[in-house]
Amino acid sequence: MGWEAAFDRLTEQLDPYHELLRFGRVSADVDDPDEWRAELRRQARRDKIPIRSFASRKRPDGTTHVWAGKARIGADELRSRNALVAVQREAAGRAELRGHARIVWLRAVLGEEAAGRCEGCGGRVYVARTTTPPTIDGDVFDRRCG
Ligand SMILES: [Zn+2]
Predict the structure, then answer these.
(1) 98 CA distance to ligand 1 centroid (A)?
(2) Domain count, the chain
(3) Are residues 78 and 66 in the same domain?
(4) Does 133 sit behind a cis peptide bond, omega within 30 degrees of 0 on the bond before it?
(5) What tens digit of pLDDT does each residue of 87-132 get?
(6) Is 35 contained in some domain?
(7) Using CA atoms, how far apart are residues 118 and 142, in angstroms rounded to an integer?
(8) Ligand 1 mean position, distance from CA 11 (Å)
(9) How many angstroms does the Cα of residue 123 sit away from the middle of ligand 1?
(10) b vs e for 53-62, b when ≥16 Cβ sit within 10 Å of the residue's Cβ?
(11) How far is the CA of 13 from the centre of ligand 1 (A)?
């Protein structure tokens, strides 16, 4: 699979529970935080996955920011997450050589792959640790920013 297909797959919209399963966490702005959290907890209980969730105070516009994540991250997961962060830093550094000064990471699968965009021009970056050596690809490496 080329990097563009991987980027699209990584940034597609999922329902909140599947986003939590795939990325280890999920957040949203919702009208009914209790319902959002209860539904996630119900599905997580069914699959015996321990999760944590939080809700902010209700905003003036009536929405509440909610967040949920897997409750436990093992040592192996932590090591591979840190290794992916190192690949993301290297990719951002290479993109900066072409003038893409700020890469915003949109999505990451814990320790495996991540998709990001340049804030300046919208150029895309895709990295993966599932290959040897790690994959660093994207259209930011083909052109200068702007
Ligand atoms: Zn750029």
Answers:
(1) 8
(2) 2
(3) no
(4) yes
(5) 999 999 999 999 999 999 988 887 899 999 999 999 999 999 989 9
(6) yes
(7) 13
(8) 18
(9) 6
(10) beeeeeeeee
(11) 24
Are residues 51 and 87 located together in one domain of the fold? no
Q: Two tokens at 96?
A: 């900066």
Please give the radius of gyration of the chain, using alpha carbons only, rounded to the nearest integer. 17
Query: What does the pLDDT look like over 20-57, one tens digit per residue?
Result: 888 888 999 999 999 999 999 999 999 888 999 999 99
Query: 132 and 80, same structural domain?
Result: yes
pLDDT tens across 61-82, in order?
999 999 999 887 788 888 888 9
Whether 1 maps to a domain, the answer reads no
Residue 128 lies in domain: 74-141
In angstroms, what is the span from residue 94 Cα to ligand 1's centroid? 12
Q: How far is the CA of 105 from the centre of ligand 1 (A)?
A: 13
Asked if residue 59 is part of any domain, the answer here is yes
Ligand 1 centroid to Cα of residue 132, in Å, is: 27
